[in-house]
Design brief:
The chain has 113 residues and is mostly helical. Helix content is 75%, strand content 0%. It contains four helices and no strands. It has helices at residues 3-32, 43-53, 65-84, 89-112. It starts with a helix and ends with a helix.
Length: 113
């Protein structure tokens, strides 16, 4: 591939990411019926946890889309379950952090073998 092809792929990826981010913002604002600048706070932790649970290695970036989708579904079930159990948001973040640390530990353990 020549450098112009790579530049066009990178431009497309950034444009698609921006479009989907804007769409997510509109959907979130419609859902909570107001524009809150900090409404998506801590969603990055959910995204990282979903990708790591899905099997993507943080050190090498090797993974699959199917694994990430399964990780997203699992994080959604965990979030819903913790909300139904009335667990505070502080402890929910701690639990997700422990899940990420455990998944990274398992990934590192597999990489050594």
């Amino acid at each position: 591939m020549c450098s112009s092809d790579l530049a066009s792929v990178k431009l497309f990826a950034y444009a698609l990411c921006g479009l989907l981010t804007g769409l997510a913002g509109v959907v979130l604002a419609a859902r909570i019926t107001t524009g809150q600048p900090n409404a998506g706070q801590a969603y990055e932790l959910d995204a990282i946890a979903a990708v790591v649970i899905g099997g993507t290695s943080l050190s090498g970036g090797v993974g699959s889309v199917l694994g990430t989708v399964l990780g997203v579904l699992l994080i959604g079930v965990i979030n819903n379950g913790l909300d139904l159990l009335s667990v505070s948001s502080y402890y929910q973040a701690v639990i997700k952090g422990v899940i990420i640390v455990g998944a990274v530990w398992l990934d590192r353990r597999q990489a050594r073998s």
